[in-house]
Here is the input.
Amino acid sequence: MKVLVTGGCGFIASHVVDAYVDQGHEVVIVDNLSTGKMENKNNKANLYKVDICGERVAEVFAGEKPDIVNHHAAQISVPLSVEQPLFDAETNIKGTIRLLELSREYGVKKFLFSSTGGAIYGEAERVPTDEDYPPVPASPYAISKFACEKYIQYYHKQFGLKYTILRYSNVFGPRQIPHGEAGVVAIFAEKLLKGEHPTLNHFPDEKRGMIRDYCFVKDIARASILATESQKVGIFNIGTGKGTHTLDLYKETINALRSNGKIIPQSFDEPRRDAARAGDIRVSTLDPTRAKRDLGWEAQYDLAKGLLETIQWYAGHVA
Ligand SMILES: NC(=O)c1ccc[n+]([C@@H]2O[C@H](COP(=O)([O-])OP(=O)(O)OC[C@H]3O[C@@H](n4cnc5c(N)ncnc54)[C@H](O)[C@@H]3O)[C@@H](O)[C@H]2O)c1
Here is the structure.
């Protein structure tokens, strides 16, 4: 099948592209390279350096006529969405509507969308949180992602466009940039490799930091493959269901670096500390039961195994 992947030179979608290519699919990437990098691009994929909000994306659909659209391009920074909600909405909401319009016009068979379980549920009372829990998006970024979900469901109901919405937990792995939605692994790894002492943000009553559901990017990419092959339409959490305190993540990162032969000073065994930031959620973990039942997806990497692969990559990329 021919798959059009937006954001395919970015962190997550470059792994999605690799997985599609490995499965023998033909892949076309649309990416404006605002945060994406040429070095992430799979050699077998065809890149259009085009903005999803611009006119030229229509030419890509007209020329390529993709079977599947897998939409990952987005403004991904929560703080930036707070500072510039209009820019966030332009990219995330208008860009998605544009792709939905073109998918309808060119008879796309399925539309896959990368949403966020990490941000959309807010401070949920039920954790791990399942897909039926009513979202309380607490930032312009989370609101824009939730709005996209609603537009996608509208296009399904109104025009029969099939879809899969994947609500990711905190994704980590090779190629991650530190300033995205969930960049803490990238931040710790880069700082430690540069000999800098990382800071842990936490609430006063929880010194171990926030609890998050860390999912390795190759597991995330596999969810796209399974969703593409499946006839199921719907919303699926993609996460491990397990919670990890930021302090434990920090210590695991140091362990992974040391077992990679990196020398990390003993004085770094405890991180520096600072207050939680505005809008920080205390606990976020996702219940992946539905993805296992309907897509046959479940995480194959645990945190330690994923971190080892991640650290090997950063060790080769951070000067
Ligand atoms: N990182 C996470 O933990 C996480 C969690 C949940 C959801 N997501 C979602 O996954 C997707 C990918 O996130 P990522 O972490 O890989 O981010 P990323 O910044 O690495 O990737 C985004 C890609 O989209 C491209 N892009 C941005 N705006 C564009 C535009 N207007 N036109 C064309 N291309 C554009 C960028 O150049 C980049 O290659 C996003 O939709 C994000 O909201 C990420």
Notes: Residues 85-105 form the longest helix (21 residues).
